[in-house]
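[job 4471] stage=fold_predict status=RUNNING
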Amino acid sequence: MTPDFSQAVWYEGIPSLYASRSGIAFEQAKAMVEKLYREMGDQRREWYDIQYWFQRFGLGDYRELLEEHKHKVSCYADVMEVLPSLGDDYTLIVVSSSTREFLPYLLAGIEAYFDRVFSSISDYGQLKSPDFYLRVCQQMGILPQEMAHIGDSWQFDFIAAKEAGIRAFHLHRQGYARNEDSLTSLADLELRLLGCNRW
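[job 4471] inference complete, writing structure tokens
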């Protein structure tokens, strides 16, 4: 999915609510909120947890905010081009760092293509790690070498999955290859899997 929905929630919606609650200008609230995001950092699971941030800022119920911004959910053009054919040849699953609160929105319209959905934060209380991927394989009843994974985080989608023994690909939509397993679209993944004898 494009980042539009998540960006709107984290960098527009939450600062706006915090500004209203605190009686300060939006830009001031946004600067304060983003400072706390940076101090937390994406190496901690709380960084991804909207319930944690709503409690920290005293904002009440997060669900109205997600509903308010759901019109910004959209997928990249290549997604709908390849999901049907990939689904014909492979069992598709989602393994995400997004929490269960976000996933119904992020998967709206494409959820039918996936057999299972895993949230590392909500289901296992951890960031994506080799252990997490091994647990997913166990839940799916497969060996790591029977799984391919693609995602846009070098650390959490590529390195962690690779260390678990999974055939991992780094999705880098900006158009340059970080290494031989960097792909610029899901169409590239389909071509790579078709040309790989092990699949």
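[job 4471] summary: The chain has two domains: 4-72, 77-194.
[job 4471] exit 0
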